[in-house]
Amino acid sequence: MSILMFLFIYVFTTARDTKDTLIVSSAGAEAIPFLKLYGVMPCATLFIVGYSKLSDAVGKHTLFCTTVLSFFAFYVLFAFVLFPLRDTLHFLPAPGVTSSPAQLLLRYWSYSLYFIVSELYASAGVPLLFWQCANDVTSLSKAKRFYPLFAVTGNLAPIVSGKIMGWVVSRQKSQDDVGFGQTLRTLALIKVGICVGILGIYRLVYRTGGNTDDETADNQTVAFKKPKKKKVPLSQSIAELSKSKELRSMAIMVLCYNVCIELTEVLWKGLLRKTYTSKSSYMGFMAGFSQTVGVIAFVMQLGVTQIIEKLGWKRTALIPPIAMGLLALPFFGAVMLLPKDGSSTTGRWGMTIATALTIGTAQNVISKVSKYSLFDPCKEMAYIPLGPEAKVKGKAAVDVLGARLGRSLGSASQQAMVLVAGGTILRCAPALGVLYLASIVFWIDSVGVLGKLFTAEDKKREVCDWVQDKSETVCVTESK
User: Among residues 199, 196, 259, 224, which one has the least CA distance to residue 41?
Assistant: First the structure.
């Protein structure tokens, strides 16, 4: 499972760095909110509908393999067909003609498509496909010990990805789009090998777990085989699942995290574009950024098991929103001090773009480290006591649609502010800071609701342990 998580995160890291490089260098950071709202969100909705319908039509293994292969097939297509033919496929503007961010997204439509697919992979890869597998084969009692350990190996992926990407970029024969295309093809071939590894390890996990049949692999943690249930439409399933306060709270957690990330990332990428103007230099910076995230996350992950055991689920889950909120304040403050018209690199109180970029980079590193090390394990543990339908359709709705909705809300607010502020995201820092803190408050409240669930489960487990001490009865505490 640790190796499987490593492979998923490796692909996610390379896809994230590549999609940002393509869009920011061609359309600017201001284009990202438009793309996430009008491109990613509708596609995420279609993905959920298709995924849910496919889950009703095929077995779990077929569903997994079909989803994974679809993503990797696109990455190969882009590297070997779409990008080499970019000048033919794109609607390039005439010399001297200026275009708005939205127009640039349409002109460079293949870059936009790559961004959309990579955003879907970010929500479907580790959050949905990997953790769905992990939740199937891991009981709640073992999750507190093993989930952080999965992430120890998984968090090595950004380090390896950054090293490999930096090496590939350094081997480019030129720093133009021709050299960048060479990098894309090399990374795509690596992805093909990783795809084979993911599919092989997935089948091995279920085989060693003693269950390889598609129809009986729905819930590895339940001690008896349940009869098949009548399949219901996605809309009805979501309506029923929305009645669960636990799922609602998880949705709020995921939504608020993604709103917060969206509000700071686009602002940070706006500073990045001012500093790194070419695709190769931007990707080189992102490679180093990924390595830094991986190293810190790996070191922190070594102690996460002890943190969860000592602090409990609720206090551990509160660390990410509190840490992110405290670190976001100086970043928004630094951006507010920069010159608004871009005529100078130095603003009030001697604040420079380089200093603001450094603060923003540190804030983004801590945000991602806290997500990988604390947020993800705590969120996934919250699914385990729930029923099988909540683990499949409920998880898909929360992790994919909830994440996309959060990003879209952040994008919509940024889009409105950019239009009011005259086309630059850096002018919007004060209002974005207020929205950021409001999201943190809702996030903390949802953690409190879920904390009650784990308190109840701990009490159930104590009763089960007492019963097992008095008799040979097997006590099952997980929801059926």
Answer: 259
Q: How far is CA 372 from CA 1, 124, 130, 277, in A?
A: 15, 15, 13, 29
Q: What are the counts of helices (DSSP H) followed by strands (DSSP E) for the chain?
A: 21, 0
- The pLDDT tens digits for 155-193 are 788 888 888 888 888 887 777 788 888 889 999 999 999
Q: Which amino acid is at 72?
A: F
Record the pTM.
0.69
Q: Are 285 and 364 in contact (CB under 8 A)?
A: no
Residue with token string 């130095």: 346
State the burial class of residue 418 (Cβ atoms within 10 Å of its Cβ: 0-12, 13-18, 19+): buried
Rounded CA gap, 300 and 302, in Å? Answer: 5
**Of residues 103, 125, 130, 152, the one with CA closest to residue 15:** 125
Beta bridge partners of 352: 346
The residue among 281, 263, 271, 255 whose CA lies nearest residue 169 is 281
